[in-house]
Structure formats: structure tokens, C-alpha cells
Amino acid sequence: MGETIYNLIQPPPPVQTHNNLHVSNFAKRSVQFNTVKRYAHRTFGEPLDKIRKDPKDPLKAHERTPDLPPRPRTTSHGNETLNKPPVPIREEIPPIVDAPERNFIRENIKEAPETTVLKPEKKKTWYTEKSEYGQTPRYLDNVKREFMAETAYWDGVRESLLPEDNETRCRLLTEEERLKILEGLKMNLTENKKKYGSLSFGQDHMSFRKRKEGMENEAKQLEEDIKLFSRQNVYITEN
């Protein structure tokens, strides 16, 4: 038999055979033990239909159960469409039918003329043949117009922030003036570094910290000024 799901069911366990029960020697003797059951069947009494007094003929399972008709198979409410046939028992294994061999290539060749194309091919278009090829897109014109408007707005804002004194003018420093100012800045920076290097490191109070921070800020500003006046062209404002 081929592979089937019914072979996955585990076989029943083997029947275990037990040895003969132990028989007491007292059973062979002619000794009678008379016991009195004073309260036997006190509430219900003995069964009316049948009483088994012989221990070799006990009452068997379901012997007193009446024969009822088979219970009809019902489905719960809402599951009427899920009514499936009962699961076959183990002895009713359905026969296994081998699937017929099919030539799918030959079948596809026969069915190809009757099939419809789900996604028809689109006509190939060349962008160089379109009417708008080589022209500026419309959205770029809108962006350019917005940029010009924003530039004009900020130019007006800058002009409104300028001082009203029209006599303020800017002029270019001569080379002699620029070098003279640059030399003075370098001398001030050298003197600042000299004073900063002569500070005592053992002191640690508020006035000493403020003095030290002031010298550091002054040196930083002097370095920025030196970098500015080291350029070729320096302009200054005059009233």
C-alpha cells in the first residue's frame, strides 16, 4: 500500500497477558465464614429485574442499559454550511487512485490561441518626439517667479533696517593704515599673552577667575581682528 494518512494512526497496544491469580489455601478447606450484612441495601433495596447471586456470573457492562435508537447528527446554529460527512473509520480506507500523467506543455500549446492578454503591450513613445521636448517646464517658471518675489521682499526689509543717516560712508583703508593697525593689534596680543603667562596658578578665587576669563576673551578678540586686518582690502565706515 502506498503512503496515506491512515497509516499515521498508531496501532492499538498489545494485549498483556497476566499469570494466574494467587489462590489461597483457605479456599480449598471446608471452612465457612458467615458474615451478616445488617445494613445491606438499606436505602434502595436489591434490584428488581435481576439479581446475580452467583459470583461466577457477574453483571456485565451496559447489560441493564436499554437499547436506544441512534442519536441523529446535528449541527450548531450558524454552522449549517460547515456540515461535513463523518470521518471514515480505520477499516474504511478509501482506495488510492494514481493521478493520470499529463503533458502540460502540449496542453498549453493547444490553449494558447484561446487565451486573452491580461496586460496588453503599450505603444513605445519617444520623448524627443513630444511637443514639450526641449522647453522649460511650467513649474520651473512658477518657482523662478516665487524666488524673484521673495528676493525683492527681503531686499526691501534690509533697506528698511538701514540707518537714516545718509552721510555714513565706507572707505577702503590704505596699505599704510592697514599695516599700522595690524602691527598694533599684534603688539597688544603679545602683551596680553605675556600678562596671561605671568598669572599665578596657585590662586583660585572669584576675582582671579574673572580676570583670567577677561584676558582670554580679549586674546580671542585680538586674534579675530588680526585675521580680519590681514586681508588685502579692508573697508571702514565713516560719519
UniProtKB/TrEMBL annotation:
Its main location: other. The keyword Coiled coil applies. Residues 44-66 have a biased composition (Basic and acidic residues). GO terms for molecular function: calmodulin binding. Residues 172-232 form a coiled coil. It is found in: Cell projection, Cilium; Cytoplasm, Cytoskeleton. Keywords: Cell projection, Coiled coil, Cytoplasm, Cytoskeleton. This is Loc402794 protein. It comes from Coptotermes formosanus.
